[in-house]
UniProtKB/TrEMBL annotation:
EC annotation from Swiss-Prot or TrEMBL: 3.5.1.19
Short name of any one Pfam family annotated for the protein: Isochorismatase
Any one Gene Ontology BP term: pyridine nucleotide biosynthetic process
Keywords, ordered alphabetically: Hydrolase, Metal-binding, Pyridine nucleotide biosynthesis, Signal
Protein's UniProt keywords contain Cytoplasm: no
Record-linked InterPro entries: Isochorismatase-like_dom (IPR000868), Isochorismatase-like_sf (IPR036380), Isochorismatase_Nicotinamidase (IPR052347)
Lineage of the organism: Eukaryota, Fungi, Dikarya, Ascomycota, Pezizomycotina
Signal peptide from the UniProt entry: 1-18
Pathway: Cofactor biosynthesis; nicotinate biosynthesis; nicotinate from nicotinamide: step 1/1
Domain Isochorismatase-like positions: 29-213
Domain of life: Eukaryota
Protein name, as recorded: nicotinamidase
């Protein structure tokens, strides 16, 4: 079921175009989908909690229009320094100066059919990357910030996987770069309630606005929704 839902999500998102004068358009606001890919849902780093966020992401895509939609892709090369498989004798979870991971998506595998404006991260095999803006050491930056600037984006609405890693890194970097950052709490997940709560508390400390989708839609109505409310 969730595999079909994910495939449908990609098919839907791949043809979405923001309509500049649409009454459903959130002006100067970008929807940012973090690592919504098979590997972190049902694949090698599967998470049983992840599929629950897909209906919320559908809703953000179906019911809203955006001047810019970005989708980050975890794009580690096969010999990436963070993979246990690149270090004989090490296992997933072991740590030296980094924490080793199971090998997630490799280039051109099924996990990379992510839609819209692709932001590839973690391509440098020597440095890991959580944020969709830059690697963890800020040695290399992706194109995300420049593309947001080109589209006059001021606000980021962030969703995806996982809350305490790549969602966290992207949200914090968004704040550092001067964006208003909104995290849709029920459109992001991680491996436990405790990990998610800890991450959200930290992000709120950075100035990230955290709200569920219903509250966000009420706080940031499009003009068409506002008209319907006035007519009630």
């Amino acid at each position: 079921m969730f595999g079909r839902a994910y495939t449908s999500l990609l098919a839907l998102a791949s043809v979405i175009q923001a309509v500049p004068f649409s009454s459903r358009l959130h002006k100067n606001t970008a929807l940012v989908l973090i690592d919504v890919q098979n590997d972190f849902i049902t694949g090698s780093l599967n998470n049983s909690r992840a599929p629950a966020i897909l209906p919320k992401i559908y809703q953000l895509l179906d019911d809203h229009e955006w001047p810019f939609i970005a989708a980050s892709q975890d794009w580690h090369p096969i010999d990436h320094v963070s993979f246990a498989s690149a270090h004989p004798g090490k296992e997933s979870g072991d740590s030296v100066n980094i924490t080793f991971l199971d090998t997630p998506t490799k280039i051109e595998t099924q996990g990379f059919r992510t839609p819209v404006n692709y932001i590839k991260k973690a391509q440098n095999h020597s440095v890991d990357s959580c944020s969709a803006f830059a690697d963890n050491q800020y040695h290399q930056f992706t194109t995300l910030d420049s593309e947001l600037s080109l589209h006059s984006i001021e606000t980021l609405v962030i969703t995806g996987l996982i809350t305490n890693a790549c969602v966290r890194g992207t949200s914090i970097d968004g704040i550092k770069l001067g964006y208003e950052v909104i995290l849709i709490e029920d459109a992001t997940e991680t491996t436990s309630d405790e990990a998610k709560a800890t991450a959200i508390t930290e992000l709120e400390g950075w100035g990230v606005q955290v709200m569920n989708l219903t509250d966000w839609e009420a706080a940031y109505p499009t003009s068409s929704k506002a008209r319907r409310l006035l007519e009630l």
